[in-house]
Amino acid sequence: GVDEGTEAAEGTDSQPATTGDSIDAELQKVQASDELDDELKKDCVARLQKAKEWLESRREWSGKRKLAETELAAVPKRVAEVRETLARPVEAPAPELPANATIAQLESRLVEMRQQVESAEADASAKQQAIEKRATRLAELAKEIVNLEKRSSETKHQLDDSVPADQLSKIKRTEQLARWQATTQQLAALKAQRRHLEAASELMPLER
């Protein structure tokens, strides 16, 4: 089977991976061909150009996968840092005002306490929004992953069953294979993003 995390171009058991160079070579063949009429050449060129776009999409998703995996790998260190912080003694509260405090001192202390309350409320609100946002994104990722797995499986079956009989059918297969490669890399990236979000969600309750 194909390793979703591989950086190299993916192929199927019956067909080597499509690359930018192989598509460029096929484009040259099409443009130099005397057997294809202008309309057919136009169709072939459009499909090959689309295949190159799929390869670019695969490259972009590969970058997103690596980023998510890097972020995921950093979570354990962050957990350790937070646990270490939580293990430290809590700072002593600020000393109370003396009984003979002036009005100015009392007003200053009141302003300070209000700021602390507002800051704590803002932090709590931001944390709750982040929790809700992550939960929403995890639900979206679950749906996207199911759809992509279905699409990838269908395309893979089509690739395994197809036997190109002429140049056009070969080019259609090239486009299809490039699309499958991009879908496979997108699937790997989304799964890595989901793993990172799940790990980050477990970390959040620990953070003050």
Mean pLDDT: 85
Tell me the β content.
Answer: under 5%
Mind describing the biggest β-sheet? none
**DSSP helix fraction:** over 70%
How many β-strand runs? 0
- The helix tally amounts to 4
- Regions with little confidence, pLDDT below 50 for 5+ residues: 1-9
* Helix-strand category: mainly alpha
Rg calc: 28 Å
Short note summarizing the structure:
This protein has 208 residues and is an all-alpha fold. It has helices at residues 20-32, 38-87, 103-161, 167-203.
Characteristic key phrases:
rod-shaped; disordered N terminus; 208 residues; 76% helix; single chain; mainly alpha; 4 helices
How would you describe this structure to a colleague?
The chain is an all-alpha fold and 208 residues long. It has helices at residues 20-32, 38-87, 103-161, 167-203. Helix 2 (38-87) packs parallel to helix 4 (167-203) and helix 3 (103-161) runs antiparallel to helix 4. Helix content is 76%, strand content 0%. The longest helix has 59 residues, at 103-161. Residues 1-9 have low confidence and may be disordered.
Set out the fold topology.
Blueprint: H1 20-32, H2 38-87, H3 103-161, H4 167-203
